[in-house]
Queue: 3 jobs
Job 1
Amino acid sequence: MNDRTKNRAGEDLNLLPVMNMVTILIPLLLLSAQFVNLAVIDSSLPAISDDPGPVDPERVPLELTVAITREGFTLRTRQGALDAQGQPAEQASPALGCLSGACGRAESYDYAALGRALSVVKDAHPDEEVVILAPDSRVPFEVLVGVMDAARSEPGSERLLFPQVVVAGGAG
C-alpha cells in the first residue's frame, strides 16, 4: 500500500487537454453570444391638464394629427380634415390610401405621399413643430416608425418638417 500512495503522489497532472478545451470554448462562446442592440425613437405622450395655460391669440396651435388605420392615413388639424395634397377637405375618410389597396403590411402604406402632404402643411405653417400620431391598435409597429420618419423630415432632403412627434391614443 505504501508503494501505491507513493506513485500517486508523484504523478504530474496533464492539464493540456483541459487548457485546449478552454482555448476552444472561449472563442466559441463569444461568437455565439448575442449582444443587445437597442434603438430609441424620440417621442412624447400628450400632456393632460385642466389648465392649458396662457393662450396667445396670435399663435393658435395647428394640432396636426395623423390618424393611422388599416385603410391608410387621415390628416386633420384644428380647422378640419386635409386631403392628400395637404389642403382642406370636406370628408374625414383616409386622405392617403395604401399602395396596393389594402394595408396589410408595413410596405403597403404610402409614406412618400404622406411626407409630401406634410411638407405642404409645413409650408403653410413654418413655425409649427408638433405632429400628433393616432395609430389604430391593429396597425403594425413598423408602420408607426415609418410615419414618424416621414413626419420628421422631408423625403430626399435634410429639411425638418415636424421634429416633435407625439403619440396619442389610437384611432380605433
Note: The beta strands are 64-69, 72-77, 80-82, 130-135, 164-167.
Job 2
Amino acid sequence: MDYPQYLRSVPKAELHCHFEGTVRAATFADLARRHDVTLPTENVARLYDHDTA
C-alpha cells in the first residue's frame, strides 16, 4: 500500500473543534445559566460575535 492510500485508510479524529461550530448560542446560554457562568453578553444573538478589530 502506498503512503497516500494508507493515510486515506486510517481512522480520523477531530483534533480541533470550536464550540461555536457545535452548539447553538441559545443552548450555550442555557448551559451557562444552569451552571452560574457569567457570559460576556446577555444577548444570545451576539454571543458568538467576536471583535475582529
Note: The chain has a mean pLDDT of 88.
Job 3
Amino acid sequence: MTQAGRCLEDLAVGESAQSSWSRVDREEMLEYARRYDPQYFHADPEAAKSSVFGEVIASGLFTAALWRRLDHSISGDIAWICGVAWQDVRWPVALRAGDEVRARWECVGLRPSASDPGRGVVEMRYTLENRRGEVVFTCLSINLVETLAGRAKRSARLEA
C-alpha cells in the first residue's frame, strides 16, 4: 500500500532536492564489500594498494545503497508505489572512505500511466556527489507514483 505523500499531480518537471552531507565510513564500506562484492580493491586494503586506485574504493553497489539511504531523507514526501527501471547507470568517479557525499534528484519527466489511472510515471535523474563536486553515482530512474485518482480510489476501498 502506498503511503500518504505528494501525488503525480503535485510534482513538477525541473523540481529538485538535495540531502545533507554524509561521511563514508571505511569499516561500513569494507564490511559491505567483504559480504557482497569481495573484489580485492573493495575488500582488502593491503591488496588494494597495488590496484589502479591505490587504496580500497567503495563497491558500486555500496555507492548506490548509500545514495538510496540519503535519497530517503529528501523524497519521503512522495507517494511512491515502486521503482521499475534504472537507465544510464554510471559510477564516473570512485567513492573513497572518508569522502563526504550528498544525494540529489531532479524530476525530468512526468506522465500518467497508460494502463492504470491510479498510477503515474515519474522519471528522476539521481546523483550522488562528493564535496569536490564530482559525481560518484548517477542514473535515470523510472518510478511509479500514486495519482490523486488512485489515492481517492484507495481511500474509498479502505472506508468500505
Note: The longest strand covers residues 100-112.
